[in-house]
Write a structure and sequence with these properties.
single chain, 686 residues, alpha/beta, seven-stranded parallel β-sheet, six-stranded parallel β-sheet, globular
């Protein structure tokens, strides 16, 4: 044990060897929380706590296995009887022993995601609702899960969230109730039920509650800042008797409120557990000092926090982070490609480089630029922007409107109409000979003749817009067509099919802006074909390494890279305008920026585009992100993209833009609706 403890710094040692009682270990980014938690387990075992009296709760099975393996190796097998695993796996273990008290057999079935979808689909059908007209089964399941993981009544959550579904909330609630009854009839639980029923067991079965409270002398929790209301109560109930609850987390990295994590859990832990010892881990083993200085300066603007200051332990020269002002998304993409090449030339491998962003559509221009440059990349979601279902739907619409005689796109478009299935769509496409000429009224009538009654109105509205499509100037014709597509039926379909319909509609508007930045629709469709083919080839290559990673910041949490580039640090993008509408949204967005910055080990680039493109092709000023405005200038090196703006406007226009920026700023005081700079009309945000 002495050798193991010698690996710890003083603060880690204090946390690992803390006396009995509640313990809050505030482990800032890169400060060795896993090592500290493992050493606390080892310390408890070394001082004689039986392993079966220790409960270790994690968020992933991988994390649990790693900690148990390391503790076992350090104690030569003493950790063998320790209870360790995810909240759900531990609850499952308890339920297997006491299921009868809740009306389930010990061998109850656990429904996986496919089982849940199948059962919910059957419930909706049995209730007499037509799947094409009802909310999609995945949406109903998501609403149920959202309520469960926030510890709120399903009825209240559905009333709040189902307003945009165009389905009466009482019908959603009816489906949820029937789904719950069906699970009981099948003697089955889904994933959320494990935690719900595990907590119900502790609340209502006094014998079981006393057994587990007496059994577990120590309860340890990893990533405590990510717990939801149910998980926090689960921990509090089990640890209520002995009071030895040790939690490790970082309030600075609480970024998952949108999926149910409750920030108050970690902030109010000392209040719920009187006498809590708080130990702060602030020595960072990941990043160079200039990166940490910037992270510290940013997160200090949050009011609701446990103050911490990251201190670098890595020695040696280090460059200041770069804040790079670029013209727009295309200029940003061109700059990032060159920055990646610069780092590759400096000896970094592609897999040492990550490009992070607030949402996947922020990387559309970059995906195209990387594809053209020959730099291979991977996306954390595994799905490129142009491979998303709703984006592919719009692309299919455009291919039909452009009269490209594409039977696959026409079939896809027809199947989006209300009540149209594969058989009906195939029959219509064959009758048309595989393609559709939007200028041919007879062809449009032939489609209408083959459609079910409830689809005819939507088709008539859409085809009427297609008839006007060629006569309008680009990009206005694309905007009008897609707006009609949304209004006629597709917005309702999004709301029935997805629980994040607003986000998907926002993707479509960003797609319109991307199209407006091309020379025309055919140019855009050609780029889409290039990207999707390259993405498929990369996915089929089976090579995980050797590629630059593109990732949202949320998906990057817990990871690190020598080189990190953060895109689109502009107000309304990062921070997200929608997130700022929520209570506490500003502080959570700043925590998200902190997470992005602290992923970098050696080098950090922060990209600041000055213009955004609207769906109709106009340009409007992109205000610098508050997270950049808050930084002292001494903490970063400022840079401009230079001639790389030539891809978007031409080199001369880029120069004119930069030379005119001061004049543009002065003209804001005139409160004009628009200005012309370098020959380009700019829309001003007044």
């Amino acid at each position: 044990m002495a050798d193991y403890i010698s690996l710890l710094n003083p603060e880690q040692y204090e946390a690992a060897t803390a006396p009995d009682g509640p313990l809050l270990i505030l482990a800032a980014a890169g400060t060795g929380k896993t090592r500290t938690l493992v050493c606390r387990v080892v310390h408890l075992l070394e001082k004689g706590v039986p392993p079966e009296r220790i409960l270790l709760l994690t968020f992933t099975n991988r994390a649990a296995r790693e900690m148990l393996d390391r503790a076992g190796a350090a104690t030569r097998g003493l950790a063998g009887g320790l209870w360790g695993g995810t909240f759900h796996s531990v609850a499952n273990r308890m339920l297997r022993r006491h299921a009868a008290s809740l009306g389930f057999p010990p061998d109850f079935t656990i429904l996986d995601a496919d089982d849940q979808r199948s059962l919910m689909g059957r419930v909706i059908k049995d209730l007499g609702y037509k799947p094409k007209e009802f909310a999609k089964r995945e949406v109903v399941l998501s609403l149920l899960s959202g309520a469960v993981n926030r510890g709120v009544a399903v009825e209240d959550w559905v009333e709040k969230r189902a307003l945009s579904l165009d389905v009466p909330p009482e019908q959603i609630i009816e489906a949820v109730d029937r789904y719950r009854k069906a699970k009981v009839e099948l003697q089955a639980m889904d994933f959320d039920d494990l935690l719900v029923n595990g907590l119900l067991l502790l609340r209502e079965n006094e014998a079981a509650r006393r057994d587990y409270q007496a059994r577990f002398l120590h309860v340890l929790v990893d990533e405590y800042q990510d717990t939801n209301a149910l998980q926090a109560e689960f921990v509090d109930v089990i640890g209520a008797v002995h009071g030895n609850v040790s939690v490790v987390g970082d309030d600075f990295q609480c970024i998952y409120s949108w999926r149910g994590s409750e920030y108050r859990n970690i902030m109010e832990f000392p209040e719920r557990h009187p006498g809590t010892r708080i130990v702060k881990l602030e020595r960072n083993y990941r990043s160079k000092a200039p990166i940490l200085d910037l992270a510290n300066a940013s997160i200090a603007h949050n009011v609701d926090q446990f103050p911490k200051v990251l201190r670098a332990t890595r020695e040696g020269a280090a460059a200041l982070p770069k804040v790079v002002e670029v013209l727009d998304g295309k200029d940003q993409a061109a700059y990032v490609v060159e920055a990646i090449r610069e780092n590759l030339d400096a000896g970094y491998r592609p897999e040492d480089i990550a490009v992070l962003y607030r949402a996947h559509f922020n990387a559309v221009d970059l995906q195209l630029a990387l594809a053209r440059s020959g730099i291979e990349y991977a996306i954390t979601s595994g799905t490129g922007f142009y491979e998303l279902a709703h984006v592919k739907d719009v692309v299919a619409l455009l291919r039909v409107a452009e009269a490209m005689q594409d039977p696959i796109s026409l079939t896809r478009l027809l199947m989006l109409l209300p009540g149209v299935g594969a058989a009906t769509a195939d029959k219509i496409v064959k009758k048309l000979g595989g393609g559709l000429d939007p200028a041919n009224e007879a062809a449009g009538a032939a489609v209408a003749a083959g459609l079910p009654a409830r689809a005819k109105g939507a088709w008539s509205s859409l085809f009427g817009e297609m008839a006007h499509y060629p006569s309008r100037a680009f990009p206005e014709r694309v905007k009008c067509l897609v707006e009609r597509f949304l209004d006629a039926f597709y917005r309702d379909r999004l709301r029935k099919d997805f629980d994040n319909a607003d986000d998907r509609e926002n993707d479509i508007r960003e797609l319109l802006a991307d199209i407006a930045g091309h020379d025309g629709v055919r140019s855009f469709l050609s780029d889409v074909a290039l990207l999707t083919n390259l993405d498929r080839r990369a996915a089929n290559s089976g090579q995980a390494g050797g590629r630059v990673l593109l990732s949202t910041v949320h998906q990057a949490k817990g990871l690190e890279w020598p080189v990190v580039i953060v895109l689109w640090l502009a107000e309304g993008v990062f921070p997200s305008a929608r997130a700022l509408e929520d209570q506490g949204g500003d502080e959570e967005e700043r925590r998200l920026f902190y997470v992005a910055v602290t992923r970098a080990r050696d080098r950090l680039w922060l990209m600041q585009p000055s213009l955004r493109t609207s769906p109709d092709g106009g340009r409007f000023y992109a205000e610098k992100s508050r997270f950049l405005r808050e930084l002292p200038p001494a903490l970063y090196e400022k840079e401009s993209s230079g001639a790389s703006g030539g891809d978007a406007w031409g080199g001369s226009r880029a120069g004119a833009w930069r030379g005119s920026w001061g004049g543009l700023s002065r003209d804001f005081g005139q409160r004009r609706d628009s200005l012309r700079v370098g020959g380009v009309k700019l829309e001003l945000p007044f």
